[in-house]
Amino acid sequence: MPNIKTIIFDLGGVLIDWNPEYVFLKEFRGNREKMDWFLNEICAWEWNMNQDAGYPLAQATEDRVAMFPEYEKLIRMYYGRWEEMLGYTHEDTLEILESVVQNPNYNVFALTNWSGETFPKALQKFPWLQWFEGILVSGNEGIRKPHKEIYELMLQRYSINPNEAVFIDDSLKNVQGGETVGIKGIHYIDASSLKKELIALGVVL
């Protein structure tokens, strides 16, 4: 069993709820099929992930409008009303975070795929983000999970020993990315299973 000294959390999907549905379901008058088509074909997840790697939001918007001018109004909503897509805190996971933050035996960080332009809005909305000793935001670094380089950067910047670290993410690909540099990974499903897996690793909660 590893001697865990560092705990690294993903944010979106683990501690923070974020969903474009909060904006677009209203715009499509509750027609989920049309909304899903728009979010899969026009403002697709892969397109949004490009901004998580540092591509400018304004340029990304103009690129998309040029490709799909008939959807200009909706495309501009994506980042124009992005803050409305920020939902709630996952309170049950926050309890786990608070427990390890208060324990002097652990160093606690966050590693998130997030646009550097929108992340300050999250900092304003969720004061508990200040609990982390450090947060590495992909959009500020020009590289995102699951690329190996971002995990290596995390280890270097915060002087983390990968053999003494655990990384929690709701994306299995991102967990596996961390494992390529020797970080023990936990694929987040819910707070209850996370708690059990941390305890199994000897983490005191």
Automatic annotation (TrEMBL):
CDD domains (alphabetical): HAD_sEH-N_like
One Pfam family named in its UniProt record: HAD_2
InterPro entries, per the entry: HAD-SF_hydro_IA, HAD_2
Name the record gives this protein: HAD family phosphatase
